[in-house]
Amino acid sequence: MIRALKVILADDHAIVREGLKLLLSTMAGVDVVGEAADAAAVLAQLLANDADLLVLDLGMPGIAGVQFIRDLRGAHAKLRILVLTANVEPRMVTAALEAGADGYLTKHGDAAEIGLAIAAMRDGRPYVSPVTGAASQSLSPIPLTRREREILALIANGTTTPEIAARLGISPLTARKHRENLMRKLNLHNAAELTAYAVRLGLPAG
């Protein structure tokens, strides 16, 4: 039997927390173990509960933007952090992911997206709402080939190297080489940073 994913919901609006609890209660293997309405309560809940995932609204009292994510990442290395916010600015998405968030979900999205994001968090994959990707149309400051953009989009969607190889009809070794070359070219170091970059380009991620 798969261990339940222990979740803390952090939002300063009680009605939002209740709605999220209702949604999550319909998902197998998900257990809401705590709630918080401000930064201090988030920290208290994390100390009191051995949580796997924090669903975090960055607009709560006591939270100074993405620095709060950095602080959480430093104190709780294994915690998965899923930002849930009304802010769809690509710059904010990028900043949150670079600060250590594992996913970025907007309150403008469909309720079904919660399930997709939770599944990604459980599997250790990044998740970024397509709404944020559509909001960004900037061009890459570093020219990318069509294949590099393909690889980048697949990585941003949580596709593994063997899956990329199968999708593109290339060997796993070649797929790994493409990934390594792309990271070197962009001076990025992990999937979260690649996902953040993909969001800036307006590539679909999630």
UniProtKB/TrEMBL annotation:
Residues 6-122 form the Response regulatory domain. The modification 4-aspartylphosphate is found at residue 57. InterPro entries: CheY-like_superfamily, NreC/VraR/RcsB-like_REC, Sig_transdc_resp-reg_C-effctor, Sig_transdc_resp-reg_receiver, Tscrpt_reg_LuxR_C, WalR-like. Keywords: DNA-binding, Phosphoprotein, Transcription, Transcription regulation. Residues 137-202 form the HTH luxR-type domain. PANTHER family: NITRATE_NITRITE RESPONSE REGULATOR PROTEIN NARP, TWO-COMPONENT RESPONSE REGULATOR. This is Response regulator transcription factor. It comes from Devosia neptuniae.
